[in-house]
Design brief:
CATH superfamily: P-loop containing nucleotide triphosphate hydrolases
Strand order of the largest sheet: 2-3-1-4-5-6
Radius of gyration: 15 Å
Oligomer: single chain
CATH class: Alpha Beta
Shape: globular
Structural class: alpha/beta
Number of helices: 6
Order of helices and strands: EHEHHEHEHHEE
CATH topology: Rossmann fold
CATH architecture: 3-Layer(aba) Sandwich
Largest sheet: 6 strands, mixed
Number of strands: 6
Helix content: 25-40%
Bound molecules: adenosine-5'-triphosphate, magnesium ion
Strand content: 15-25%
C-alpha cells in the first residue's frame, strides 16, 4: 500500500499532478480541502485502516511537515513515496496570479524561503522529481546527492 507525499511551492502544480496521475487510484488528503489538522489526521487513519492508497497534497516545505505523514504511514506498513513538484519561483508566482483561487504573495515567498528539498534520510522509499513542461509532466528520480562544490 502506498502513501504519496507531495512537496512544492504554492501553484507549482501539485493538485494538477494529483488530477493527472492519481485521481483514479489514490485518495486526496489536503489542507485546502479538509481545513483542520484533526480532519486531516482522521482521513489518514481511515486510509490506513482501509488500506487505501493516498496522496498528501500540501506544500510540505520542510522535513518536519513531511514527517507528520511519513512516520505514521511507515508505522502502518505503507510504502512512502515522495514527489518534489518543482516550478521556478517566477513561474509559480505568475501561475498563482493567473488562477482564480490565488494565495497571498507573502505565503509563497515564505514557503520559498523555508523550503527544504525532500531527502532519503527522512525515510522515503522512493523520491521523484516532477516538473511540468508545455508537453506534460517530466517525472524523473530525484537527484539527492549533494553538489560537489
Ligand atoms: N504545466 C502547466 N502549465 C501551465 N499552467 C499550469 C501547469 N500546471 C498547472 N498549471 C496551472 O497553475 C496553477 C496552479 O496549479 P495547481 O493548482 O496544480 O498548483 P498547486 O501546487 O496545487 O498549488 P497550491 O499549493 O496553492 O494548492 C493552476 O491554475 C494550474 O491550472
Ligand atoms: Mg493545490
Amino acid at each position: 500500500m502506498e502513501a504519496v507525499i507531495f512537496s512544492g511551492l504554492q501553484a507549482a502544480g501539485k493538485t494538477t499532478l494529483y488530477r493527472d496521475r492519481f485521481l483514479e487510484t489514490h485518495a486526496r488528503i489536503a489542507m485546502d480541502l479538509l481545513r483542520t489538522r484533526a480532519r486531516e489526521a482522521a482521513l489518514m487513519r481511515v486510509c490506513f485502516e482501509t488500506r487505501t492508497p493516498f496522496v498528501v497534497d500540501n506544500t510540505n516545505p520542510t522535513a518536519a511537515d513531511r514527517a507528520r505523514y511519513l512516520k505514521p504511514a511507515r508505522e502502518a506498513g505503507f510504502r512512502v513515496i515522495g514527489y518534489l513538484v518543482e516550478a521556478d519561483y517566477a513561474v509559480a508566482a505568475s501561475r498563482n496570479l493567473a488562477r482564480t483561487r490565488t494565495v497571498p504573495a507573502a505565503g509563497l515567498r515564505d514557503a520559498a524561503r523555508r523550503f527544504v528539498r525532500p531527502a532519503p534520510d527522512e525515510g522515503f522509499d522512493e523520491l521523484w522529481h516532477a516538473t511540468a513542461g508545455p508537453d506534460g509532466w517530466r517525472i524523473e528520480p530525484l537527484l539527492t546527492t549533494p553538489p560537489l562544490f
